[in-house]
Amino acid sequence: MKPATRLERIYLVLTLILMILAAPAPLLAVGQAKPPAYYQKIKELAVRVEPEIIAIRRDLHAHPELAFQERRTAGIVADYFRKLGLEVRTEIGGTGVLGVLKGGLPGPVLAMRGDMDALAITEETDLPFASKEKVIINGQETGLMHACGHDIHTAMLLGVASVLSQMKNQVTGTILFIAQPAEEWGDGAQKMIQDGVFRDYRPEAIFAFHVDDTLKAGYVHYVPGYSGANCDTFFLNIYSEGCHGADPDQCVDPIVVGSHVVLALQAMVSREIDVHDHTVITVGYFHAGTATNIIPKKAELRATVRSYGDEHRERLKKKITRTITGICQSHGAPFELDYQFGTPSLYNHPELLEAIRPTAEAVLGGPDRLIKDRPEMGGEDFSYFAREIPAVMLSLGVVPPHLERTSVHSPTFVADEKAIGLGIKLMSCILMDYARKPAARRVRAFKKS
Q1: CA angle in degrees (0–180, nearest 5) for 178-183-186
Q2: Do the strands 346-348 and 225-228 form a parallel or antiparallel pair, or are they unpaired?
Q3: Is residue 343 within 8 Å of 379, Cβ to Cβ?
Q4: Taking the complete model, does pTM exceed 0.85, yes or no?
Q5: Among residues 157, 143, 133, 149, which one has the least CA distance to residue 76?
Q6: What is the spatial distance between Cα 89 and Cα 364, in angstroms, rounded to a whole number?
């Protein structure tokens, strides 16, 4: 073949260049489209408010308060909301606070929740703002500590309110900022709902953060569908006439009967319940007797029962009641069983989660930073809000750089405060983006019960 002339080579190169220029640009992946202009404004405001919010977080950490006693915390929240010019209601469900931001553009009502209460744990960190607070519980002095990150949750609630209130003219619709008491007791959200937190404004969707003690700052876990369990409890007393340990045939031995109950419940989980129905039954308290040679008059058992969904928790109650009744009657042991339903399982609305995923990926810096996680068997009373309104709770990484992990509900729990600014920016963008979606692309609100 005759080699191409110099002119032909130039023509070929120019042709290739024109073809490349004329070709359509490749489509960007979901979440990689150019973000809205207000993202930059949110980023700037979040950076500006971050030092103030971290200072508030440290103050809250140094002065923790137990469930329904969060008066100082609630006062700080209410005063901050008023400073921002929000409409404020206080003492909802006890010590709960509601701040209402009315945007400059018409749109839906959305909500963000932060919880305020602390735990009866004596702090063992070396933080300069470590809690020194003490309280008397059952005659024993113990410390108080924000060992579950609620100081961070509340601080981020204030941070998001600050950022969006400064962008009020660009905010679409109305945003409710809910500072909730008593999450650790499992009924603060329910109390607020019963006391009319949504009396004047009913949101279409509600969002929340929880600190994640397995992820570094900059990463977020999400779980579609059930992400937290029903937290139910039973109290069982098994009775006997009592007798000498050398003559066990003279009475019912409630320790033996109770032991049969414990083992039967574990067999029930493995043999009577579908393996796909996540279930945990843990007898965490078994007390009986005062001496080695006496069969006691009573054995006391206390247990937690974890599951997902209302139907499964009802079935579990029937199975557990049937099992305990059968064992006690077969041994001729009188008994009392008190079975109580507690906090319901938390359901993250899958469609709502999908609707905010592009925002989360864009703010976090890519889909690799938004990580799908497995459901847990822990409880979270945000579930009461999720029964009223489509809801999503995201788990925000807070593990400090020098640690592999940190542990909530531990006296040594510490968190990377870099997560606070990121959380403020992320939730501000989620609320702004979701409110601007056309009604047809937003998740349909639940009907009022």
Answers
A1: 125
A2: antiparallel
A3: yes
A4: yes
A5: 157
A6: 33
Angle made by CA atoms 436, 439, 441, in degrees to the nearest 5: 85
Strands (DSSP E) found in 217-312: 220-222, 225-228, 230-239, 243-244, 280-288, 294-295, 298-307
Residue count of the chain: 449
The whole-angstrom separation of Cα 77 and Cα 116 is 10
Number of C-beta neighbours around residue 400 at 10 A: 16
Three-state DSSP class for 438?
A: coil
* Unique residue bearing structure tokens 């099992």: 323
Q: DSSP assignment of 351-380, as one string?
A: HHHHHHHHHHHHHHTSGGGEEE----S---
**Could you give the CA distance from residue 367 to residue 272 in angstroms, rounded to a whole number?**
40
What are the residues whose beta carbons fall under 8 Å from the beta carbon of 437, sequence distance 6 or more? 355
Beta bridge partners of 307: 230
Any idea which residues carry the catalytic annotation? 117, 183
Alpha helices in 203-302 (DSSP H): 254-271
User: pLDDT per residue over 306-347, tens digit each?
Assistant: 999 999 999 999 999 999 999 999 999 999 999 999 999 999
CA separation for the pair 137, 417 (Å, rounded): 31
For position 26, what pLDDT does the model report? 34
Tokens in use for 291? 């001496």
All structural domains of the chain, each given as residue ranges with its CATH number in brackets, are: 38-229+345-441 (3.40.630.10), 230-343 (3.30.70.360)
Q: Say how far apart CA 227 and CA 220 lie, in whole Å.
A: 14
Are 226 and 345 within 8 A, CB to CB?
A: yes
